[in-house]
Amino acid sequence: MLRLPAVPALRRRVDRWAGTPRALDVVAALSAFALMLLDVPGLARADNSLTGFTATLVLAAGAATLVLRRRLPVLPYLVALVLLGWLHELTMIQFALYSIGRFRGRRAAVVATLLYVGVAYVLFQTPGWPARHGDTLSDFLSLVVPIGVLAAGVGVAAYRQDLVRALEDQRREAAARQAVQEERISVGRDVHDLVGRELTVLAVRAEVLAVRARGDAHQKDFEELADTARRAHLMLNETIVRRADRDAATPCLEGLAALAGESERMGSPVELTVAEEAKALSPLRQAAVHRVVQECLTNAAKHAPGLPVTVAITVEGPGLRIEVRNPLPKTPPDPVPVSTGTGLLSMEERVTSMGGTLTARQEDDDYVVTALLPTGLTGP
Fold first, then answer.
1. What is the pLDDT of residues 340-352, one digit of tens each?
2. Where are the alpha helices (DSSP H) in the chain?
């Protein structure tokens, strides 16, 4: 006795199967068989040694080959040619030619159609083969040729639609993979910019404390802490060498004071000047300003530790000017700072993407980074 709880599960399995390609093949086979059943009375009366029952079995076996039309479309095609010559049955050939065009493409469909027309012509010329479809060759071909061409043409059209859908699916998958890749690059960018900066802060701060604790029992601990931070920064740089620049949700002009405070705690005093007009910039441009200043302060802490930094953000007509200046150290810092050399490239890429320019140069004893970009503000 069938238990009631099994009925929903069976229904779900049937629903899943109904949407599969195999179910469509079964429907095609049943449809062909149903159409050929209409010819059974005539087949039984014809001189082919078949009764109504045996003719039904033969047609059922022929239609059953359509279940394999996706993997072996040639099989139902050959069976259709046999049925054409033996029982003069044209229904099966329509399904077979459609299947070849649908699952093998235009070239196979053209060859199969030409072969079908050739076989039909030979059969028409064969003595004793009934010419019930027309008294003349032109009458006969007027029926045979359109059947084959139409069936194969519809199959080729469906094949092309399948290709278009497959290309669209591939395009969507490629777009999704690209979005994932861009997001990974963006995450790597933020990890490098944010974590790398914190490691730099940690290393510089530990060095300052080591100097202050010179001769103290904790001097060695601070030096080891600074070395650990530098090694961590080096591993980070080796892991994230190439990165893309993306606008992340970072503090804008309001966060510049915090950046200056961090630099001062590392021993590099910062003189920050921000024009009042700059506060009207769009969030996108404010984020660019923040990124440029952040990278400049980080580089100054690496290559010129303990020296003052001047940051000036001014608005000159339609242009925004960012200038970060710091003196060059008399001697290179010891130990040599960890750097990938891509910070300047990253800043230039961001500024250029917004229609601006960035230059980094040495002026006398100072190192100056200047970024110029449009403000995007409309006049009064």
1. 445 677 777 778 7
2. 6-18, 21-37, 40-45, 52-64, 74-87, 91-104, 106-125, 137-190, 196-212, 219-239, 256-265, 283-303, 343-353
